[in-house]
Amino acid sequence: MLGIPFLDDAISKWFKPQTFDDPVDRLNYFITSTLLTFFALMVSAKQYVGSPIQCWMPMEFKGGWEQYAEDYCFIKNTYYIPFEEQIPESIDDRQEAELNYYQWVPIVLALQAVMFYIPNWIWKTLHQQSGIDLSTAVSDARHLRTLRSNDRCAETKRLAHYVSECLEMREHRRSPRRVFIFRFGQGLGSYVSMLYLFVKLLYLVNIVGQFMILNSFLSSENYQLSTWYGFSAFKELWDGEILPENTYANKIFPRITMCDFKVRRLANIHRYTVQCVIMINMFNEKIYLFVWFWFLFVAISTFINFIYCCFSLIPFGIRVKTTKALLKHAGSESLDNSVIREFVDSGLRPDGCLLLRFIEGHAGAIVAREISTALYSDFLEHLNERKSGPGSHSTESTTPGLEDGFSETYDGTKMNTPLIAPPVSVMSYPGPPKPKAV
């Protein structure tokens, strides 16, 4: 399929699912943003290509006059008066009953889609300053599922060495532009975790703000949208109560409205009041009913996910329990509780636990167990080296793709042996050998 190169690259870069998130993140920044963008395009097509409004004109309005009046009434706010009520004579009373939202529905939906994507943009921008390449680590972990046993074991060790280096050396690779609010997590190994929880909180604040925007946008001076609008509107729609005047559909999304406009003819100004049908409100009613229930589902999912992430990343005991479960299921031996606690505290730390969670979510539990076991073995080796002292040094490459297989071990006694033997003293030279007697 042919496409626009720059547009295709931008869409694939900004809106494709990532490898360092969870399903609730994708529910917010990808699925919800895509739905709102689709609704915005659908309403825009109906408004600017189709016929969003039709009005009942006087007999003298023909041709261009009728089109002019309908365009004016759509641009100028119409007002809703129930049929059992008299049309007010006061212009101010008519203005209070105006509907001032339906022209802005596509724009507001598009802005809401952008708001759902902003927390993910913050996460993508700031997590790169941590020194941990989450995308590469998770992508390589997903690639492990396609390898055979021998290659898989070697690649798992190599990836574990790489992750271990990132967790140990990231303090030296941190960007000086890092946000000040997360600086105090530098020495604790929790910069990425704190940033991730902050983004989760932004998702939660955003969905609460979306409900406030929805209520404010659809409410008018004569009618305020209720908190549980979705349930009441769905009940009326289910019962078939669509046409009665006292339903939510006619109060918020009226089909039949009134419009006032003036026409200048020579020196006289004539005022007309016409009755119009806003057909676009049939789409708006169904769209916003679905959006309300969708926002409710996203809000519940985001709140539960935020609480779960806080309890799985902040308490030290929960992180120890989760790591121990991964090591046990992988069949690791020598699982000492004190060593595991030290491994979680000084080896993995919160950022490493979060990385293992991403790997488990995208590559599977088996790969996460293998990598956690390799990280634990690597930690035990470093722990034994620290206990035995600086007696050995290895030059084996630990970066993926740079393994050369060369290792060198130095012996302390050999280090004291001079490379060149000292010269023999002249005074101790016995002289040339004596000739034998004949």
From TrEMBL:
Can you tell me where the transmembrane regions are? 101-118, 179-199, 291-318
Instruction: Tell me if ATP-binding is a UniProt keyword of this record.
Output: no
Q: GO CC: one term? A: gap junction
Alphabetical keyword list: Cell junction, Cell membrane, Gap junction, Ion channel, Ion transport, Membrane, Transmembrane, Transmembrane helix, Transport
Compartments, as annotated in UniProt: Cell junction, Gap junction; Cell membrane
Per UniProt, what is the membrane topology?
A: Multi-pass membrane protein
One Pfam family named in its UniProt record: Innexin
From its record, what is one biological process in GO terms? monoatomic ion transmembrane transport
Q: Which GO terms describe its molecular function?
A: gap junction channel activity
The UniProt regions of compositional bias labelled Polar residues, in chain numbering, are: 391-400
Stretches for region Disordered: 386-438
Name where it mostly resides. Answer: other
Q: Does the keyword Cell membrane apply?
A: yes
Cited InterPro entries: Innexin
Q: What does this protein do?
A: Structural component of the gap junctions.
PANTHER family, A to Z: INNEXIN (PTHR11893), INNEXIN-3 (PTHR11893:SF20)
| Protein family according to the UniProt entry | Belongs to the pannexin family.
- UniProt-recorded name of the protein: Innexin
